[in-house]
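Continuing the series of single-chain predictions for the mutant panel. This is the parent chain; the variants come on the following pages.
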Amino acid sequence: MSIQEDRESSGFVLSQRDWGYLGSFRAMASPCELLIATRDEKMASSMMKLASGEAARIELKFSRFIEGNLLWRLNHTGGKASGIDGETANLLQFARQCYQFSDGRFDISAGPLMALWRFDGGEVPAAGAIERVMALVDFSRVNFNEHQLQLPAGMSLDFGGIAKEYAVDRVAYLLAEQWPETSVLVNFGGDIACPVAKGEDSPPWQVGIENPQRLDSAAALLEIRQGALATSGDTRRFIERDGQRFGHIIDPQTGYPVVKAPRSVTVLAPNCVTAGMLATMAMLEGEHAEAFLRQQEVAFKCFR
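Parent structure:
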């Protein structure tokens, strides 16, 4: 198969730059990019094929919007126990750590709430409807081990808060494992990982942080040679009704979007799932977001 045929079959675009190759595709409702520090087109194409395939696999498995997939089946067991694989068990364990660390505010059992709050130009859900589904939101009631999961009837999980960051880390790890000498910056919708350091003899990767007041323009520019970052915010998904803005970060303890939160939070961390967890938790802290992040002793940028 030629490189061009490989691109077409895998659904990605690859273009040459002064510093190497830029590859792009779409997955998980986000633009996805790889910045690859190589002159080898065949290598860059192989990297893109791996990245787009792994992103598609994770989306197909864990998206709540794909009827009949693994997550859909788990959410429709009617209270019965169901078998799970090691990957799912590991994600659930991470979700449990997030739940415990956030005192219950980072809760992937908020699927019923997310189904109510549709940020597509719809209406604000009725208070009664929110109150009814709140009875189905509580990760402490989720029972699982390495091989089995049991959800209370009516409860549903939503991996949206961790799946994209997990996909970034997985792709970055697989690339680093197969091409350990080549620096690649993996960027899925602003969630980023770069496990192989960019050499000191070349410029660092540059990452723009979007300006919440002027979308599609950068308010700040970060330089990164190695590490990860993630951004959480409500700049693109929100509802405005009667002069009130409702962002898409839902507080599962109230059933409503968090109040007095920054417009966006970007966190730098060793891996993307950690950065994403801290960015989302900071949003859930509302007016105390900056204080929370300072306590974690991580580099961050908040826009209000």
